UniProtKB/TrEMBL annotation:
<dbReference type="InterPro" id="IPR050490">
    <property type="entry name" value="Bact_solute-bd_prot1"/>
</dbReference>
<protein>
    <submittedName>
        <fullName>Lipoprotein LipO</fullName>
    </submittedName>
</protein>
<dbReference type="InterPro" id="IPR006059">
    <property type="entry name" value="SBP"/>
</dbReference>
<dbReference type="Pfam" id="PF01547">
    <property type="entry name" value="SBP_bac_1"/>
</dbReference>
<keyword id="KW-0449">Lipoprotein</keyword>
Length: 530
């Protein structure tokens, strides 16, 4: 008990000291002076700033996500001049919410943490776990305010206060499908353009076995990039009220769980699984590692992925496939269609990752200083593209990243280090799309451009209420787990037992919070329309 009391007293002193340091650590231009002890008396005492970083298990040999070329550059360029020691704290990407919950609950969270889940942010707000960033942003966030703008920053306001700094999401597309063009050519098949044609193509892949032993017609993992592009086109056209009241926000994305057509979408996945057209061990592959491995070793005929990711460097899926399998060719496609013939799929909101500073942090001022430094155009460009001449050249004002090992090793996790921007913003959507395609190796740029366009086609923007839905905050994580459990059990059920399994899983889902979310969203919609 004494230890807990001491901790509480220490936290109070730290909070007061941080507030005091903030008041005296700002110039009339809004720029901050030395952080920590230096703000109070001119000493050069070093502050240790802990920053979360996603660990995707893809670091080049000899490097880690906490010790690589970019972390060293950040330390030398930002840390050393400001007497701040950067300490990066790795969090596995596939378990980021669970890991962050543990860190927050234990009081050991880094000074800068983040998530894509707005419900999780609000949960921390309600628990009193986050620092109100309003004064820090006003005093030392001039670059952030200029770069993000009020519209993006508003996504980080909860209960009227700025509890998070949302990253600007430059590209709003989510997913794109890919197919082995050389398999189609070998079998004399056209590129599938409808869901029915996809099914027929997958059947041909299985029967003709163009990949040899171990052919997987449709590569699939238990990740949204695999199941959402297939399920969403089955969703029927509804009224605005139905969309708002039957959709459920689980994690960082809307799930059409209660929408008409959802059951039919899952039933189609059941058909694919029972006919041996889909990755047999998909349920064990939440991080897509097995899927990527199967694609790169030439086993997969078709799959869906985050738009453009197959051409990236973490790993460079298509490039590695072509090295492993002579003559292999991947074509980006947009084949799944709804009742109107549209290629509907979910899209992103203009705000991306939510960056937060836990209330337990001693270094709120230093954390804001770091984010504000990052929001400068030259810093964002350096984190994204490296050094001009060494890692990229300019073509019509667009950075062309070099396709060499040194550059790949430098930029392999650039998106995870660039906390305030999901993508490099060149100020024009067409220019941004062109820049994204030009950022991949030259041999894949034309296909990457198509992949990015496919990700945007017929995209459905996420819904947004004027306040968080409390039931989604309370049950979102549990229901996301139950949703994926439902997908697994329903996909693997015998066809004649599908209805029974689906109905039972939905009953469990609704009684575990789904009903409460539906009721609250219905009430919130009525209030929004008053």
């Amino acid at each position: 008990m004494k230890k807990k009391a001491l901790k509480r007293n220490a936290a109070s002193v730290i909070t007061a000291a941080a507030a005091f340091g903030l008041l005296i650590g700002c110039t009339s231009q809004g720029e901050q002076t030395e952080t920590g002890a230096a703000a109070g008396g001119g000493s050069k005492e070093q502050v240790t700033l802990k920053v979360e970083v996603f660990d995707r298990g893809n670091s080049p040999a000899g490097m880690t996500v906490t010790n690589n070329l970019v972390t060293k550059w950040v330390q030398e360029t930002f840390g050393d001049p400001n007497h701040i020691k950067l300490e990066f704290v790795p969090v596995p990407r596939a378990q980021e919410v669970d890991k962050l919950n543990v860190l927050m609950a234990s009081g050991d969270a880094p000074d800068i943490v983040f998530t894509y889940d707005p419900n999780l942010v609000y949960k921390y707000v309600q628990q009193g776990g986050l620092m109100d960033l309003g004064e820090l942003l006003a005093a030392g966030g001039a670059n952030l305010k200029s770069y993000l703008g009020e519209d993006t920053l508003n996504y980080g306001k909860f209960d009227g206060k700025q509890y998070a700094i949302p990253a600007k999401r430059v590209y709003l597309g989510k997913y794109s499908s890919m197919i082995r063009q050389d398999w189609l050519d070998k079998l004399g098949l056209p590129v599938p353009k409808t869901t029915e044609e996809v099914y027929n193509t997958l059947k041909a892949f299985k029967e003709k076995n163009p990949g040899g032993s171990g052919t997987i017609p449709l590569g699939f993992s238990l990740a949204p990039a695999s199941y959402e592009p297939i399920i969403w086109p089955f969703i029927k056209k509804t009224t605005e009220e139905e969309r708002y009241t039957l959709m459920q926000l689980l994690g960082s994305g809307d799930k059409p769980t209660l929408m008409p057509g959802h059951k039919e979408g899952v039933k189609f996945l059941n058909k694919l699984y029972n006919e041996g057209l889909i990755s047999p061990d998909f349920a064990l592959d939440k991080d897509k590692k097995k899927l990527q491995q199967d694609v790169m070793t030439g086993k997969v005929g078709m799959y869906a992925e985050d738009a453009g990711q197959s051409y990236g460097t973490a790993p460079e899926v298509v490039g590695i496939l072509q090295k492993n399998v002579q003559g292999a060719k991947i074509t980006p496609i947009d084949p799944y269609t709804n009742e109107e013939g549209k290629h509907t799929k979910p899209a992103y909101q203009p705000a991306g990752m939510y960056v937060m500073i836990p209330k337990t942090s001693k270094n709120g001022e230093a954390a804001m200083k770091y984010l504000n430094w990052m929001a400068q155009k030259d810093v964002l460009n350096r984190l994204t593209n490296g050094e001009e001449g060494k890692n990229y050249t300019l073509q019509d004002g667009i950075p062309i990243v070099k396709d060499d090992e040194a550059t790949k090793n430098l930029l392999y996790n650039s998106g995870d280090m660039r906390l305030v921007s999901n993508g490099l913003d060149l100020g024009d959507n067409a220019k941004n799309l062109k820049a994204m395609a030009l950022a991949v190796p030259e041999a894949f740029r034309a296909d990457a451009a198509i992949s990015y366009q496919n990700g945007l086609a017929d995209g459905i923007a996420p819904l947004r209420f004027d306040r968080p839905i409390q039931a989604e905050v309370k049950y979102g994580k549990v229901l996301l787990d139950k949703y994926e459990e439902m997908l697994v059990k329903c996909m693997m059920a015998k066809p004649d037992e599908f209805d029974k399994v689906y109905d039972a899983m939905m009953k469990d889902y609704m009684s575990s919070g789904g009903d409460e979310i539906k009721k609250e969203r219905t009430e919130a919609y009525k209030n929004m329309k008053k």
